[in-house]
């Protein structure tokens, strides 16, 4: 019996309704259907009274989700997509991402297109697009303290009411540099259109094998976004006496202390998107972010009376 999964956002009534209807339909068609919310992919935040929030990335898959699963369907917005990939990436399960949220930058189809999209996938008429994921780790006293898979970005920043931070950053074997800023964003090409873009970073097309580092409100005209090879390991040492906060993909985080080390590298897991048509990144930029739209024409000259 073929097997597929459904991951849905259980706080969105539309996603819950579609998930239930889809499960009934697919089960009647002879599929084994495994249902799960995106909850286990949302890692939560460590707290001062409970600082360790450490679940190995290969232990996040919901029951029934394994390498025997043909594909899974995600019903939600971009947050559910990000959580879903943390759940399934270790098994290489491709995801058909369906938007029941707002912008849906990472989604492939809208809810009203699902019947046709599902028919197309079951007929094998699709492509797999692989996207880079990051392994993010916090090392404390020489031991692994916290880790997560990241599809968009890692952000380390000051807490409210603290002063500007200093970060010592090392890329691969290169000499360390000091960055004075409110925080640092490290993003994948997928995340280049998220927080990194808002902070002034460049847009990177998904197939380019790079990562980027973007200072947040740097206190130097020389501190600008840095794009570097994704084969390099990035290490960040907070050169500040204040406790900092690290957030991964907007929904998982950890406190970072002055003696901690944050280490990032390209993960050997990747996010596998099901594409119903050949990926066209510029079309998505145009539709979702308005990139490359024609300028409004200037008024033609008019003869004055």
TrEMBL record:
GO CC annotation terms, alphabetical: cytoplasm
Name of the top EC class for this enzyme: transferase
Molecular function per GO: ATP binding; metal ion binding; NAD binding; NAD+ kinase activity
Record EC number: 2.7.1.23
InterPro entries the UniProt entry points to: ATP-NAD_kinase_N (IPR017438), ATP-NAD_kinase_PpnK-typ_C (IPR017437), NAD/diacylglycerol_kinase_sf (IPR016064), NADK (IPR002504)
Cofactor requirement: a divalent metal cation
Location (main, coarse): cytoplasm
Keyword flag Transferase: yes
Example of a GO biological process term: NAD+ metabolic process
Catalytic activity: NAD(+) + ATP = ADP + NADP(+) + H(+)
Matches recorded under Gene3D superfamilies: Probable inorganic polyphosphate/atp-NAD kinase, domain 1, Probable inorganic polyphosphate/atp-NAD kinase, domain 2
Purpose of the protein: Involved in the regulation of the intracellular balance of NAD and NADP, and is a key enzyme in the biosynthesis of NADP. Catalyzes specifically the phosphorylation on 2'-hydroxyl of the adenosine moiety of NAD to yield NADP.
Entry similarity comment: Belongs to the NAD kinase family.
PANTHER family reported for this sequence: NAD KINASE, NAD KINASE 2
Protein name: NAD kinase
Organism annotation: uncultured Coleofasciculus sp
């Amino acid at each position: 019996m073929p097997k597929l999964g459904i991951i849905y956002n259980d706080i969105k009534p539309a996603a819950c309704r579609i998930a239930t209807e889809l499960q009934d339909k697919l089960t009647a068609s002879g599929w084994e259907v495994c249902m799960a919310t995106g909850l286990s992919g949302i890692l939560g935040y460590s707290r001062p009274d409970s600082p360790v929030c450490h679940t190995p990335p290969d232990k996040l898959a919901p029951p029934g989700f394994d390498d025997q699963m043909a594909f899974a369907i995600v019903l939600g917005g971009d947050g559910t997509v990000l959580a879903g990939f943390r759940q399934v990436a270790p098994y290489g399960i491709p995801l058909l991402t369906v938007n029941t949220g707002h912008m849906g930058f990472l989604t492939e189809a809208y809810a009203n297109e699902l019947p046709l999209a599902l028919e197309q996938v079951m007929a094998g008429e699709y492509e797999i697009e692989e996207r880079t994921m990051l392994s993010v780790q916090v090392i404390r006293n020489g031991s692994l303290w916290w880790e997560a898979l990241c599809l968009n970005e890692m952000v380390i920043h000051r807490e409210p009411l603290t002063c500007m931070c200093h970060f010592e950053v090392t890329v691969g074997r290169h000499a360390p540099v000091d960055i004075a800023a409110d925080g640092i964003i490290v993003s994948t090409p997928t995340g280049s259109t998220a927080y990194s873009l808002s902070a002034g970073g460049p847009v990177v097309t998904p197939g380019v094998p790079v990562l980027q580092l973007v200072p947040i409100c740097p206190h130097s005209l020389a501190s600008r976004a840095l794009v570097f090879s994704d084969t390099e390991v990035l290490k960040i040492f907070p050169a500040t006496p204040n406790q900092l906060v690290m957030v991964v993909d907007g929904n998982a985080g950890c406190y970072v202390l002055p003696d901690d080390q944050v280490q990032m590298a390209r993960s050997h897991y990747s996010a596998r998107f099901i594409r119903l048509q050949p990926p066209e990144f510029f079309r998505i930029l145009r539709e979702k972010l308005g990139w490359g739209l024609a300028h409004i024409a200037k008024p033609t000259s008019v003869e004055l009376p």
